[in-house]
Amino acid sequence: MARKIGSRYTANQILGRGSAGTVWLGEGPEGPVAIKLLREDLSSDQELVGRFVQERTALLGLEHPHIVTVRDLVVDGNDLALVMDLVRGTDLRTRLERERRLAPEAAVAIVADVADALAAAHRAGVVHRDVKPENVLLDMQGPLGPGGAHPALLTDFGVAKLIDAPRRTRATKIIGTPDYLAPEIVEGLPPRAAVDIYALATVLYELLAGFTPFGGGHPGAVLRRHVTETVVPLPGIPEELWQLIVQCLAKAPASRLRASELAARLREQLPSLAGLPPLDVDEPEPAEQPTEAEPAAAAPERAETVRRRGAVSLVPGARPDSNRDTHT
């Protein structure tokens, strides 16, 4: 059933539900839009509403071909909503589940698009904080790029920051998705642009291998591995590409590339990747659960199990997912 969102928008159809709220197919003065309506307990939190209004200028100013543009922020009674461009396509998690792993050329082309998006956001002083396949949308109406990849757009800017308020998260909790969290986040340091680079390198590794470099097992164990373990090499990709991944997964934030540098270096790799098939990589053995003698590290906010299923993208026909730990 349709409902009004503020004075300018109508939410017509639910596209999916996530832990932070519901995404609707809506209509605005200029045509179809996607409307993320935050949960009622979030919209009734005056501190969060204040942060929402403070972030308005930064979020509305993010304009880039590879960013899902936020068109409006609505605060109206019990409604707190982000109005965004509607992308006709699917999300990267859904494609990854369907294909298990991508050919290197397509994987690198998609990640280069996302790196471009992050470069624009970081120049504007915005850190995403939750880069993962669920938050990358593939525009099926856009032109095909290298490896047959559809244009990739990064979505969900600002939501992780909005819900990460001191009253909502205890000191022992972490906002984010365990597999993609940079070591400095695990150690309690404030998130800077480098956390997005680490997460994006993790996504690239996952697209190539079919699994994340430090995932598997109890979320606390995943967090420890981010801090203490080195990444396992992937056979079958050019050495220069592998070194890019290693550099962007460096434990020290200052050692990672900036987003603009990463985008340029990835695109330089594309000619050497043309025609390469997806990698033939064995899945790692399931990790053991922690024992009483080995307590887990701080648990992420609503942490997930070993694997996430497909996310809710801002598109008609996408599958709902109740397992996402931060937002839709």
TrEMBL record:
Q: Kinase: present as a keyword of the record?
A: yes
Gene3D superfamilies recorded: Phosphorylase Kinase, domain 1 (3.30.200.20), Transferase(Phosphotransferase) domain 1 (1.10.510.10)
Q: What class of enzyme is it?
A: transferase
| Renumbered residue ranges of the record's region Disordered | 274-328
Instruction: Tell me the keywords, alphabetical order.
Output: ATP-binding, Kinase, Nucleotide-binding, Serine/threonine-protein kinase, Transferase
Low complexity bias locations: 288-300
Please state what the protein is called: non-specific serine/threonine protein kinase
Q: Which organism is it from?
A: Streptomyces misionensis
